[in-house]
Amino acid sequence: MMNGGHACTGALAGAAMSGVVGAATGAQLGVAGTAVGALLGAGAALLPDLDADGATAYRSGGPVTAAVGETFQWLARVAYRTTRLPHDPDGDGEHRGLVHTPVFAVMLGLLVALGALLSPWVTAVVMVLVLAPGIGALSRSGPKWVRRRLRTHRDPVALLVAVGIVALLMWSGALTNLGWFAGVSIAVGMLVHSVGDSATRSGIPWTWPIRRRCDTCSMTVRCPGSRWRRSHVLPKPMRWRVGSPSGKAIEGVIEVVCLVLVGALMLPDVAALMAMA
Ligand SMILES: [Zn+2]
Ligand SMILES: [Zn+2]
Question: Which end of the chain has fewer CB within 10 Å, C or N?
Fold first, then answer.
């Protein structure tokens, strides 16, 4: 899946999750909560592609996100080298490897949630780095007037807006309670990314580090094993090739549907806000 599809599906997951969190904790998050949830989900759904140089999340924060990307890629290569089995594919296992696994998504989310216990600044920095690519990618997928009026499709502007949002959250005192929310959002967003990639022909190594039979050995042949075998969420004829004309058309529809649903989730809060004014 390409950036736009990842960002829009992540935004929908994030917006829905802030609704669930609001209902579960009784917190009145309102339209701001849903909006921040959507932006955070969109950004988190771009994080797994930090394992590819030049991806949106890789370049969104300049040298800072590039350094995070290089660190993730190094971890991915080390994990591949140390856990690969004879029937795992050749290569260094960098792209669509460790950073695309559910294990990594949950660990990173946990790390962010725990980091919030150290200092609210950890949450602040993480949120800026996640929000910036989310804002940029959503602006590129959204209606034209966003690009014309807000210019948030450009990386530096998206980064500035992300800093502004986090500064506002900090100033209002909301940021201190957002550490675990950021952690859960990151894990969920990254999982949504992996589901997106698994709907295409690429697939991702869902079951790492579990040892499995590779996909070429038959049931009768003894397979020396594979840990990085990729799995999919759709039956073979329904998977599309990333970047192909039909793939782009399918992802375009997914983007619009997700954005409309995010809008629908925000509608009750906007209506309440209008009634108050
Ligand atoms: Zn990916
Ligand atoms: Zn095999």
Answer: C
Q: How far apart are CA 277 and CA 272, in angstroms?
A: 9
Provide CB contacts within 8 A for 239, sequence distance 6+: 199, 200, 201, 232
Per residue in 20-61, pLDDT (tens digit) is 887 777 766 677 888 999 999 999 999 999 999 988 889 988
Distance 47 CA to ligand 1 centre (A): 8
Q: Residue 212: beta bridge partners?
A: 226
Range of the domain at 73: 3-276
* Whole-angstrom distance, CA of residue 50 vs CA of residue 59: 9
Instruction: Classify residue 46 by its DSSP letter.
Output: T
Distance 87 CA to ligand 2 centre (A): 5
Which CA distances in Å does 277 have to 103, 230, 270, 273? Answer: 46, 52, 11, 6
